[in-house]
Amino acid sequence: MPKKILITRVIPAIAEELLTQAGFEVTVWRGNQVMTKDELIEQLLPCHALLSLGSNKLDRAFFEACKHLEIVSQFAVGFDNIDVAAASEFKIPVCNTPDVLSEATADVAFGLMIAVSRKMFYNHKLILQGEWKQFEPLKNLGFELTGKTLGIFGLGRIGSIMAQRCTGAYGMKVIYHNRNRNLAAEKETGAHYVDFDTLLRESDVLSVHSALTAQTKNLFNKEAFAKMKNTAVFINTARGGVHNEIDLIEALQNQTIWGAGLDVTNPEPMHANNPLLHMPNVAVLPHIGSATVEARTGMARLAAENIISFYKTGKPHTPVNSGF
Ligand code: GLV
CATH for 4-100+293-313, among 3.40.50.2000, 3.40.50.720, 3.20.20.210, 3.10.25.10? Predict the structure, then answer.
């Protein structure tokens, strides 16, 4: 009897192809909406494995209802939508898709940094509104990035690529803060470890690349923004929950910080009347960090290969819970 796999959205075809070639029976949920929890649980009744997306909330109640699952393989690097402790209790391995989307996500952080520093999104809006009348010697001036200090919160794979982009393009000095020092990344990028307050105080551009955890939730709040330079730009391409959006809006309105570039918001999707969308020094994107053909294909391939490897060898390639 072939093992049955449910994929919860249409993703690049390579996932279904690899799984089918490996002898699995694959069902793809073809709806355009995220499955409700009840739909998900019902569809999973006859299945052995789940290929999930970040939009599926896999909490304790989910795992209690689906303890028959043998593996959860997520099509994302982030897995804050999954109660990994509950999965571990039921001895279900959970996997993610690191590395394959790092270049794409770092590009979005890098692009947002430039877009904010030159008010690009705002200037584009002015053209659409018919406001491009003449050369303006003193209006809408941005600032230059050369020689500035980049602060990375979460120097892992994506943060390291962002650091390399910024040193290569602008000779930026790089400082970072992590829960634990990352000596390999320090060597690779030349980044210097600093405590959290120093990161806040010294960064001209502060870019978030950490996971959303109980420790990082709401970390960039009123108190944190108050410690930053009033010329600083805050960039978040990781998870919106790491910043407090009300506090961010206030910090920008009060000119506590200078600007912000967000690929992730809190909540998502952001409402079209959010004040952030109307601020000159802010650029917002709708969570497109991994939205390249290369990254999404790599994610689909790795998510499938995790399942195949698990059933072949007992070990998925990139588990996030220990013991697998
Ligand atoms: C995207 O946000 C991901 O976690 O892959």
Answer: 3.40.50.720
Instruction: Give just the sign of the alpha carbon dihedral 258, 131, 272, 212.
Output: negative
How does pLDDT run across 43-77, given as a tens digit for each residue?
A: 999 999 999 999 999 999 999 999 999 999 999 99
Return the best residue to mutate from 75, 108, 290 for the ligand 1 pocket (most ligand atoms within 8 A of CB): 290
Looking at residue 324, its pLDDT comes to 87
Contacts of 52 (CB under 8 A, 6+ apart): 8, 58, 72, 73, 74, 75, 81, 82
Tell me which amino acid residue 227 is: K
Question: Which protein residue's CA is at the shortest distance from atom 1 of ligand 1?
Answer: 76
Q: What percent of the chain has pLDDT over 90?
A: 98
Say yes or no: do domains 4-100+293-313 and 102-284 share a fold.
yes
What CATH code is assigned to 102-284? 3.40.50.720
Respond yes or no: is residue 268 known to be catalytic: yes
* Predicted local distance difference test score (pLDDT) of residue 323: 86
Q: Exactly one of 48, 157, 177, 239 is catalytic; name it.
A: 239
- Is the bond leading into 46 cis (omega within 30 degrees of zero)? no
pLDDT of residue 255 exceeding 90, the answer is yes
Q: Map out the domains of the chain as residue ranges.
A: 4-100+293-313, 102-284
